[in-house]
Design goal:
Layout: H1 4-31, H2 40-63, H3 67-80, H4 84-88, H5 92-124, H6 128-137
Helix pairs in contact: 1-2, 1-5, 2-3, 3-5
Length: 152
């Protein structure tokens, strides 16, 4: 069986993770002072990825019930690196904070993606008859989830 809500959340989280990966690639380039000068095209790419994350992050985190856990880290990471040139000029401590914030968001999104994939697999292994029988009995599959995974 398939659950539309799980599939929608998996699509949202996959797109969000791809944007965070792109941001990381650009930040890594910006932090490497041995790399050549930052081009206008790279700055444009950075701005587009950052704008996409600024627009979508709150919605995605709310849909995944992670808003309280991650919104502060995500916004700090996005504010700290407001341009690729600004990233290049960060002090070592600021660069480390940016990397820690990025890693915190990326790790938590990856864990959430794994949990969703696990739920999808468990649901796929459930026969339609068993699923409907459990619904008739009033069982809820999410009762087995931790509080962090499901917020009613």
């Amino acid at each position: 069986m398939k659950d539309k809500e799980i599939e929608t959340k998996l699509r949202l989280i996959s797109l969000q993770l791809e944007s965070w990966k792109k941001l990381h690639d650009l930040i890594t380039y910006g932090l490497d002072k041995a790399k050549p000068i930052i081009s206008v095209d790279q700055e444009r790419q950075f701005t587009e990825v950052r704008a996409n994350l600024l627009q979508e992050t709150e919605h995605v985190l709310r849909e995944l019930n992670l808003l309280g856990d991650l919104s502060g880290w995500a916004m700090n990471a996005l504010k700290r690196g407001f341009s690729l040139r600004a990233v290049r000029e960060l002090s070592n401590d600021e660069a480390r904070r940016l990397e820690v914030e990025w890693n915190g968001v990326f790790t938590k999104l990856g864990v959430a993606q794994g949990q969703l994939k696990s739920r999808r697999k468990a649901l796929a292994e459930t026969t339609p008859f068993a699923h409907f029988r459990s619904r008739l009995r009033g069982d809820r599959w999410w009762h087995t989830l931790s509080k962090a995974e499901y917020a009613p």
